[in-house]
Structures are given as structure tokens and as C-alpha cells.
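Board notes (copied after class):
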Amino acid sequence: MISPSVKDMAWKQGMGRHSEDEVLQMVLKDVRTLSQILGRRKYLLGNEVCEEDAAVFGLLSMGVFASDSPFKAAYDGER
């Protein structure tokens, strides 16, 4: 259950104006784009981990490691 204040913030931000399926498709498109940017590189900006790598990991891990995430099955299907 999502609290009314979180729904209100999501609506004002813009993401709350889309269906769950639309949000999932946007996320998957972003993940595919990130994969293309990375290519065969280990890190985003060179040979060493940077703040951007940590930020991306933090965002992706919420969807991958949360047991009730609707994104987990989609990520698994993308492999």
C-alpha cells in the first residue's frame, strides 16, 4: 500500500501519471540504454569505479534485490 503523500509526490514529479506497465517499460528502456553505454566496459567512466557507478548500482539494486519488486522478473527476463 502506498501512502497518499507518496502518491501525491509521484504525481507531481510526473511518474505517478503513468500506469505501472508504462513505468516498467520506461525502466527497461533505461536499463537497455545503460547496457549499451557500458558495452563491454566494467565501469561507466573508465577503469575504476566512480560515484556514477555507485549511484546507478543504488538505483538498480532497489529493483533487483527487493523481493516484491515488479522489476525483478523483468530484469531477469532481459538476461
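Comment from the instructor: The longest helix spans residues 20-38. Helices lie at 4-13, 20-38, 51-65, 70-78.
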